[in-house]
Amino acid sequence: MALLTKAQLTSALLSLSQMPAGWSTDSGSTSSGDKTFCNYHQPHKAQVQVFRTFQKGGGLTATVASVGLRQYASASDAAESFAAMEKALKSCHKETYQGSVLKYSPMSVDKLGDSSLGVRIDSDGTTALQQFTLDGPTLINVGTGGLADPEADTATKLLRDQVDRYEAAARQ
What we know:
Layout: H1 6-12, E1 24-25, E2 48-56, E3 63-71, H2 75-91, E4 94-97, E5 100-107, E6 115-123, E7 126-135, E8 138-146, H3 152-171
Antiparallel strand pairs: 1-2, 2-3, 3-8, 4-5, 5-6, 6-7, 7-8
């Protein structure tokens, strides 16, 4: 896979028109942050990172979805970073972050790209489902979350769609 510019990666992100019906853009999100699961050490820093956030519903039925691409300097840097995250999640099952207890559970995901993993995050009555796929030099992530239904089927479809869009952009 070719390395892409920030503009190319941003263009490869799923857009509102590619979301299922009922979603809107979430303009309140400003940063995906550098927080890692249980603050594990990342062996390499992503060279370019882009993301987009969407929302659906409101009140107790509000659901959020995010898509992101983290491109590393090389496929081997990305693989080492993915392996470090995977290793951390095997031993890290709970942490306190900004006053909230986050509980992590492994989650099954579609096998896409070079490797995939999923994690369910429960905290303060909400559930988030995060899915990650390693694809060459890029770590692709999709997450959904909410109080009532984090929409696992939606997250799975979005991950497939995001991987397809990234791969199409990287082949050009």
